[in-house]
Write a structure and sequence with these properties.
Protein name: Replication factor A C-terminal domain-containing protein
Helix content: 10-25%
Radius of gyration: 28 Å
InterPro entries: NA-bd_OB-fold, Rep_factor-A_C
Organism: Brassica campestris (Field mustard)
Number of strands: 24
Strand order of the largest sheet: 3-4-5-7-6
Pfam family, one: Rep_fac-A_C
Number of helices: 11
Strand content: 25-35%
């Protein structure tokens, strides 16, 4: 079949040479010249057989248009020795192949594929300016929408909250042997949405070369780095929670590496100085054990497995009920209802952290309902309705409603007593969930409706890893209640002070 040669749209010239713009690259063969900067290149391999498919590239031209490039495996040896990231090249003759539908790293409909007669040479004297890089950032809402679709791979920038399970209060010590064995490292990263509003905390898994690059950069920094930019991440749902995972095309940047990290670092430092803390940190709670109750803002890292997330309580006082000969018996000596009907109540243990410490919180009663929007009895009942073959003594696994709170940031009203710190558990009892403070206005926000923006951010998933509001979950409405609105008939634990 005869194919039409595409040699049109020569948009720039240099010493009588004419170059085609990436915007004008169409599908089919081209007898034309391209001039571009080689941003990055990486090996593409079959995910199952691990066989080499080819060498993929990310290219940018003088107009700032980004396109993907591809070199077949049989031609890699011809070009690879002269390829250097960041250098500018001239390419003569290529084929515009259709951009792949999965794991795309550029928006362009075509891919610049090297053919039998392609010739590439480095340009050392460049009369024009070509950007060094170009990023495609996605919001948390976009990541949620595209989760598990295997479509475009976008970039994420934020500040690190945990590195390999360690806070950044003191410089984390990374176990190189463990990382080499597991082939990955997990980072909790938090982005910001608008003004000084903190965005969602997401789990980021860096695999193989990306993990190696992260460790090398992290350890080479004189001061503990705080800002992280990771390119071309894939979105997956692991254990019911949104997670970002690196790909073979992934690159890692920190603090002052590139302009977006420098911009974010400037914002982050400013936000840290301007934002006034009005609640206690976890470290403060540990140091003020004599207080009956306290408030702190923390991010939920995980729902602890290995122990039941609920207990069967007395329908009258909610104290634990035990099996008697013919009925359940309330263990509360002051309860008038000795023989009682059992009702499932929350007793879920969660792992939380803030900028100072990590801790375990125990969710009881209303606190669990305010986070999930569901009563524990409803979740237990729904499980047995869906699993009729299970006996009454079967322990219900952690439900999706609880898993979905991972990554959320909340202000917790907690009860602090000596009992909470007995042994090595350092578990704190949560008695109420309070609304997060509205961020203070800044110079950048003068003339804008900050209240409306803050509320919109909350409804779109601000401060949550998997926002319940996206599924119509009433948990967001419950979380807006204050301590003073607690039902006096059910609030058996100490109430928070204002």
């Amino acid at each position: 079949m005869a194919m039409k040669r595409n040699g049109k749209s020569h948009v720039s010239s240099d010493s009588d040479e004419q170059f085609m713009s990436f915007k004008d690259v169409s599908l089919g063969p081209h007898e034309a010249q391209l001039r571009f900067r080689l941003i990055h290149f990486w090996e593409a391999r079959n995910p199952v057989k691990k066989t080499l498919i080819g060498l993929e590239m990310l290219l940018i031209d003088e107009q700032g248009t980004v396109i993907q490039g591809f070199i077949p495996p049989g031609r890699i040896k011809k070009y690879l020795p002269d390829m250097k990231r960041g250098s500018v090249y001239k390419l003569i003759n290529f084929y515009g192949s259709k951009n792949k539908p999965v794991y795309r790293v550029a928006d362009h409909l075509a891919t610049v594929s090297f053919t039998w007669n392609s010739e590439m040479s480095a340009l050392h004297e460049i009369p024009i300016s070509i950007d060094e890089d170009r990023f495609r950032f996605h919001s948390h809402e976009d990541f949620e929408t595209n989760c598990d679709l295997k479509g475009d791979l976008y970039d994420v920038v934020g500040h690190m909250k945990l590195v390999d399970g360690q806070t950044l209060i003191e410089r984390p010590i990374i176990d190189d042997v463990k990382i080499a064995t597991t082939r990955h490292i997990m980072i909790h990263v938090q982005s910001h949405e608008v003004y000084f509003c903190s965005g969602p905390v997401m789990k980021l898994y860096l695999w193989d070369q990306a993990a190696t690059d992260f460790i090398k950069k992290f350890n080479s920094c004189e001061n503990t780095p705080t800002v992280l930019l990771v390119t071309t991440v894939n979105t997956k749902r692991l254990g019911g929670t949104l997670a970002l995972t690196s790909m073979s095309s992934t690159r890692v940047f920190m603090d002052n590496d590139v302009q977006p990290t420098r911009n974010y670092l400037t914002w982050y430092v400013s936000a840290d100085v301007i934002t006034k803390r009005e609640t206690l940190t976890i470290a403060d709670i540990f140091s003020y054990m004599s207080q009956e109750s306290a408030k702190c803002t923390a991010t939920i890292d995980d729902v602890v497995h290995g122990s039941s997330w609920y207990y069967i309580g007395c329908s009258e006082c909610h104290s634990k009920a035990t099996k008697g000969t013919n009925s359940l018996i309330c263990t509360n000596a002051k309860c008038a209802k000795v023989n009682t009907t059992g009702v499932a109540q929350y007793r879920a243990k969660i792992s939380v952290y803030d900028n100072t410490e990590q801790a375990f919180f125990v969710l009881l009663g209303d606190a669990g309902r305010e986070l999930t929007g569901r009563h524990a009895s409803e979740l237990v009942s729904n499980y047995f309705k869906a699993n009729k073959s299970e006996g009454a003594d079967h322990e219900v696994p952690i439900p999706e409603a609880l898993i979905s709170i991972i990554g959320q940031t909340h202000k917790f009203c907690v009860k602090v007593t000596d009992h909470n710190f007995s042994g090595n558990t350092r578990a704190v009892t949560v008695t109420k969930i309070l609304p997060l403070d509205t961020p203070p206005p800044t110079e950048a926000s003068v003339g804008n409706d900050i209240g409306a923006t803050s509320e919109e951010a909350k409804q779109s998933g601000n401060n949550v890893c998997e926002p319940p509001t996206s599924r119509g979950d009433p948990a967001d409405e419950d979380s807006k209640r204050t301590c003073g609105s607690a039902d006096p008939g059910t609030a058996k634990r100490p109430r928070c002070g204002n």
